[in-house]
Fold this protein.
Amino acid sequence: MSKQSLSTQPYKGTRDFFPEQMQVRDAIFSQLRASVESYGYQAYDGPMLEPFELYAAKSGDEIVSEQLYSFEDRGKRKVAMRPEMTPTLARMVASRSNQLARPIRWYSIPNLWRYERPQRGRLREHWQLNVDLLGLASVEAEVEIVQVAIDLLRGFGAGISDFEVQINHRQLMDAVFEQKLALSSEQVPLVARAIDKRAKIEPAAFEKLLVEAGCKAQQIEDLNAFLVSPLMELEADFGDNPGFKDLCRFFDHVNAIGLGPVCRFNSSILRGLDYYTGIVFEIYDKHPDNRRALFGGGRYDNLVGMFGGEQIPGVGFGMGDVTLADFLDTHGILPQVSPSIDVMVGLFDASLFDLSQQIARQLRQAGLRVSSVLVPMKLGKQFQNADKQGIPIMVMLGPDEAQQGQVTVKHLKSGEQETLAQTSLVPYLQNLLA
RNA sequence: GUGGGUGUAGCCAAGUGGUUAAGGCGCUGGAUUGUGAUUCCGGUAUUCGUGGGUUCGAUUCCCAUCAUCCACCCCA
């Protein structure tokens, strides 16, 4: 905060991506795109600013009141920087609802903003892969979406036992809260919050939260019994519940497909967003050093209809870049970055500048990515610079080569080099880099 | 929003109420006008995050502020 100069730091909770980091980001995003596109999902994007009301209507309370970046524009419109992508998606789908072929399979990697205090895995700006499938009301949609989520991680090389998909259903939980426990509408969010924390705290602390929420001993006992019950044992109490039926069908499919071992029913999974209406799920890292939720999603059947047109059911998930990178790092499967420049054309002295540039142009026309030295410097320095940028090949041409119509190609990794005719340079390099 | 830790160069860091603020890595120039290493020589902080206070004197002590990290809150 010097008074003379501006700070070079990025805004709190945001990151600069220098070329080195941008390469990693690009490599991760490319892998994500390849995975979701293999399922036939198409890319879309929307504006970073949306009307404030878009979020005021459907996201959780705290998200809007505490963590939304919002302001008034010059035309007195209240706008917000998008804190999540799903409302934008719903708006876009609603605006073309009668033109889009169903089911709609869309994905995006938007940057999202939330005003909060940065900490591990949580920043103010982050990128989030969003994958959504709209137009299907039945659990076949969830079966696909969960497969996409699983194959995303597998696409990076994650093992089948490195993570786990934990699944629950909002309608099942509604039945528990309203019918089985007969909670008041004020108690439900408090109990839900306690359940959300259950895995992280002691049983006694969990009970304390329930007592604070106004639960009686019998209710606590019933809830605890429910939370530890496997899905099969819930049939007696919830056999007619649509959520229970969905879950059964979902697990039947998943088991038949062979993904049973990766998926588990967990009635503690709730997720905070108000708009989920059906199955909700979270993907958990099973590595002991990183045991936490990586990402999650669920079904939102009422969101698109908010815009007044046709009600279109949807299911999807969002995966943040920070937690994903932590996962990949923890498991040692960060993608390898490949060099973004194929060849550096060196410069021996100023008199050979034009010839060097001609060679470089020739190589670019042949489809190679070519950087060049513009001002002469010591040869050793040129090699060093090129190597530092990860460029594998250096093309050199001094007075000797120039006179004989030759060039020298040096492989920076091995240090080996050979001299060949300028006319055979392009095929030589193309063959090498193929 | 709450509580706590930490701020000395691009990075890692030593240091002290008293003239010029160690060292290492990195970067950079040279020794070396046809080859990346090693070695050697030089340059890399007019000042210790910023502002104020105490003091004859502050990088050091005090306050504030900013940044950052950790936990909480909440989670898209």
